[in-house]
Amino acid sequence: MKRIIIHWTAGTGSPNSVDLEHYHYLVDEKGRVYSGRFKPEDNENCNDGKYAQHTGGGNTGSIGIAACGMLGFSGINNVGDYPLTKVQCERLFKLAADLSAKYNIPITATTVMTHYEFGLRNPNTSSAGKVDIVCLPPYPYIDKNKTGDFIRAKVRWYRQYSAL
């Protein structure tokens, strides 16, 4: 595995059957972690159709994790009916840290990123224009273009200071 791509589901605060098909791991609004249908290793080779399809143009070698929520998001000033919670975000950051340690993935802007950042870097994929993750409701002071940097700082902290 070469990278971790972080999403929100654009759904409610709990995973549904579609979410479980598309992400390797999901974190609900209370911070509980759910395993998706596919293991990260299923995304080593995406030619067989048996893999988590979380990032158009970027599934191969990528672990997809998601925070459940943000249904109705229509912009930073309207985060919808199921905004991400602080406990959920922190658990998502710790999950990314644990996975980066387990799979020996360095924490850089090209190896731990949001779906939004992937789309910016890969404008000729179906991920271009995706809005997850452009804001974190528990941290409203973070600039849209700094959200990925904030997440990576949190992931580094959890990797350094918490055990697997």
Describe the structure.
The protein is an alpha/beta fold and 164 residues long. The protein contains 4 helices and 5 strands, in the order βαβββαβαα. Strands 3-2-4-1-5 form a 5-stranded mixed sheet. α2 (86-102) packs across α4.
Gap between N and C termini: 18 Å
Which consecutive residue ranges, at least 5 long each, have pLDDT under 50? none
Strand order of the largest sheet: 3-2-4-1-5
Mean pLDDT across residues: 96
Rounded to an integer in angstroms, the radius of gyration calculated over CA atoms is: 14 Å
How much of the residues is beta strand, in percent? Answer: 5-15%
Give the helix/strand class.
Answer: alpha/beta
Principal-axis shape equals globular
Main sheet: strands, sense, barrel: 5 strands, mixed
The proportion of residues forming helix, as a percent range, comes to 25-40%
Number of strands: 5
Order of helices and strands: EHEEEHEHH
Topology:
Blueprint (H helix, E strand, L loop, with lengths): L2 E6 L8 H6 L2 E3 L5 E3 L26 E6 L18 H17 L9 E3 H7 L25 H15 L3
Parallel strand pairs: 1-4, 1-5, 2-4
Antiparallel strand pairs: 2-3
Helix pairs in contact: 2-4
